[in-house]
Specification:
Arc Repressor Mutant, subunit A, 391 residues, 3 domains, Rossmann fold, alpha/beta, globular, 12 helices, seven-stranded mixed β-sheet
Length: 391
């Protein structure tokens, strides 16, 4: 069993090298196939929470290594594969099984989910057709229809349930699909007891409780929550914080628990001022980028992080690349993807007769600089694991 907490992780070496490592891994894992264009600079820099200059230096490393190519006036592309020997007849290629994978984004959070999916399917000799909905319902439906029409044998889906007026009706409607599917990082929001939907996801509430328990162990009594609205996991994370605060005796201060669709600079500045005035000494943030912005603003207002204000983030996408590496709840993205693929393979191999599984996998807490270290008092660690039910 892994421990729920990892030893302190500090950023070593120039930031652009860490960004280059992330981009390199995404390419090696097949997120951006040979010959495809990388996202535009601004989108990629915002996703990775780095400056344009840092991103350009990172991409420059990949250009030097021959992994990507810059094309004047067109953009940056993954280098095409070197020619190799023939891999077999056309008939053998077309007989290969294919699985469609539909995610909301190919730049944030989901690259490691896709990596886990591809690792399992590649080992099973199954190909992947990857598409992104870009968090748009119309695009999602078009991509889903295109995948079904393309002849894939199964689907791994991350639907944008948080954007739908009746998400349960959408999940119920998926039963009309003519092929097996598994939901990834999503679950039916209001299922009937005999709902047969198979899903694999992160236990977000459990991850939040890990973070709050850690902060309580460090002696923090007044803990704020800077949260989000209208994201795929926002409601689960918010509910998890409320439950953890009640369970662990957190002193919840009016205004210190706040959620927005988007946190701008002025809103974060006002939030920091309110926390300082109200005696809040720690904040749990839903999202690395908001947490990084909170740290910058706290220091601008004269607060030392973590001495005056401890910060823990949720996502662990770019938590370690800031000037103050962020302690973060790290969802088991690769494991979620891998297990989703395994369940789908079971459905395919059994012609749909395999039992339906509903699986929660618990995140882990990665302790870095922003929270101030390990607990002063003993805190029960929760091992990474999974719980599952078959129905």
């Amino acid at each position: 069993m892994k421990s729920a907490q990892e030893k302190d992780s500090f950023l070593q070496g120039p930031k652009y090298l860490h960004v280059a490592k992330r981009l390199r891994a995404n390419i090696e894992n097949g997120l951006w196939a040979p010959g495809t264009q990388l996202p535009v600079e601004r989108e990629l820099a915002d996703t990775l929470a780095v400056s344009i200059n840092t991103l350009r230096r990172a991409v420059g490393e990949l250009v030097t290594e021959g992994i990507v190519q810059r094309r004047q006036g067109a953009g940056t592309f993954v280098a095409p594969p070197e020619p190799g020997p023939p891999t077999g007849s056309a008939g053998a290629s077309t007989a290969r099984r294919l699985v469609g994978v539909l995610v909301p984004s190919t730049t944030y959070y989901y690259p490691r989910v896709v990596e886990g999916i591809q690792r399992v399917l590649r080992d099973a000799g199954v190909g992947v057709v990857l598409a992104s909905s870009k968090y748009e319902l119309g695009v999602e439906q078009d991509e889903l229809d295109a995948m079904v029409a393309s002849g894939v044998q199964g689907l791994l889906l991350v639907p944008n349930l948080h954007l739908m007026s009746d998400p349960q009706a959408y999940v119920d409607g998926l039963r009309e699909l003519p092929l097996p599917y598994v939901l990834v990082e999503r679950r039916p929001p209001a299922p009937e007891p005999d709902d047969p939907t198979a899903w694999v996801g992160t236990d977000h509430a459990g991850g939040v409780c890990l973070a709050v328990r850690h902060l309580r162990g460090l002696g923090h009594q007044r803990i704020g929550h800077l949260g989000r609205r209208r994201t795929g996991t926002a409601e689960q994370v918010a509910q998890g914080f409320d439950e953890a605060a009640a369970l662990l005796g957190v002193d919840v201060v009016d205004g210190a628990v706040a959620r927005r669709e988007v946190w701008g600079g002025e809103e974060i500045a006002e939030y920091v001022r309110h926390c300082a005035t109200a005696g809040v000494t720690a904040v749990f943030c839903h999202g690395d980028r908001d947490a990084a912005a909170l740290v910058v603003e706290a220091r601008r207002q004269g607060l030392a992080v973590p001495r005056d204000l401890a910060v823990v983030a949720y996502d662990d996408e770019v938590a370690e690349v800031g000037d103050v590496p962020l302690t973060a709840v790290s969802p088991p993205k690769s494991e979620v993807g891998a297990l989703s693929a395994q369940l789908l393979l079971e459905l395919l191999d059994s012609a749909g007769s395999a039992p339906s599984h509903r699986v929660h996998i618990q995140p882990r807490l990665v302790v870095r600089t922003s929270c101030g270290g390990r607990p002063r008092t003993s805190v029960a660690g929760v091992p990474t694991g999974r719980t599952a039910s078959a129905g």
